[in-house]
Specification:
alpha+beta; Structural Genomics Hypothetical 15.5 Kd Protein In mrcA-pckA Intergenic Region, Chain A; Alpha-Beta Plaits; three-stranded antiparallel sheet
Amino acid sequence: MTTDKKPSTLKLNPGTAKKTAPDPFAPRRAPVRPPGPARAKSVSASAPKPPREPSPGFGAKRSGPEGERAERPRYGADRPRSGPGAGPRGDDRGWSERPASRRADPRDAPYGTGDRPQRAPSAAPRPAQPHRPDLARVGNVRGEIRLNKRMADLGLCSRREADEWIARGWVLVNGEPAVMGMPVAPDAKVEVLPQARHQQAGQVTILLHKPMGYVSGQPEDGHEAAATLIGAPSQWRGDARHPADGRRFAPEHTRGLAPCGRLDIDSVGLLVLTQDGRIARQLIGENSGIEKEYLVRVHYAPNGPHGAGVVTQDVQAVFPADKLALLRHGLSLDDQPLKPAQVDWMNPEQLRFILKEGKKRQIRRMCEQVGLHVVGLKRIRIGNVVLGNLPVGQWRYLGAGESF
C-alpha cells in the first residue's frame, strides 16, 4: 500500500539564533538594549526590592533633559568681572553686603553658654610678705637648715655629694631615711651608711706641677686645661713605683676632677685636683684659711713695664720700704680690702708671698699697685702639702698620711 504523505521535516524558528560556545578569550561587551522605555515588570510583594541608587552629592553634575550632564553655573558667573557693570567681589564688598555670622543665632552657641552664670570678680591679691634675710640663711626661726648644708658643715661631704647620697638613700636623720631638701634642726642626728663611706674612699686627690701655658679650669682662648695632663705616662715615677697607699692609676680617676684654687696661665707650680668634696671645701670654701705660698720674681717699674726707669737687678735695694708694708696689708682689689699677707725678700729679685685668699691674679695686681712687675710666679705649698721635687708636667697622688 502506498501513501502520498510527505516526509516530515524539522522547522526552525527564524527569530532564534544558533547558540555557539562562548570564546573565553573574547572581550566582554555590554548588552545592547533596544531604545525606548523599558517594559514594566510585575514585582510581587514578597520579592526583594532592588537597591536604590545613591543620590548625587553636593556639587555633583546633574543630567539634563536629553541625557547630557549639564554643569550648574557658578554664582556670579553672569556678572562681568571688569567694567562698569561689575559688582563687588571678595573684600570689595561693604559690611552691609557680607553675610551675617552664623553665631548670631543663640541656638548656635555652645551648649551651656546661654545660662552660664557670670564669674565673680577675682579676690584682691595677697600683700607681699616682708623679706626675712635671717630665714633665707637659717631656714626658719627654729634654726633649721637644709640637710646638704648641714652635712657639709659637719665635714661629711660636699653639698653635691650630699644630694647624691640622699637620693640613693644613704643618709639617715634621727634614724629615718632623709628626703631631698629637708630642713634639719641643729641637734638632729645625721648618719651616713657604709655605702657612702665606701664610695668616698675610692675618690682620689692629685697633685700636679702645672707648666706654663695651661689653664687650671675649663679650656679657654685655645689653651688646654691642666686636667688633660693626668694620665699614666705623666705619673711621677717615684709615686708609681712606691705609692704611699698602694694605689694604681685607673681611667676612672680622671672623672670629675675639680681644680681647687686658681693658678694663672702664665704661672707654674702646685695645683690640686680632687674628686673629694671635703678637700675642695677645705681649700676653696667660704671659710677656708689654708695658707698658699708663692715665689715671685719681680722688676721695679715705677712708670710701667715699658716705661723709663725699669730696674731688673738688685730690686730689693731700690724698692721703698713703705711700699713693702702696703703689700703686707693695706691694699684693696675690686673695692674690697685684702686680708693681711706675709711678704718677704728671698733674694734681691725674688719675693715670697703667703696668702690666705685667692682672688683672680691677686699677686700680680698687688704688685702693680706698688710699682712692681711680675716676671715669674711659682706656687710651692698649699697648707701642709709642698711641691717638693715633683717635675714640671708630672703628677702624683695625695698620700694617705698627707693632709692640708
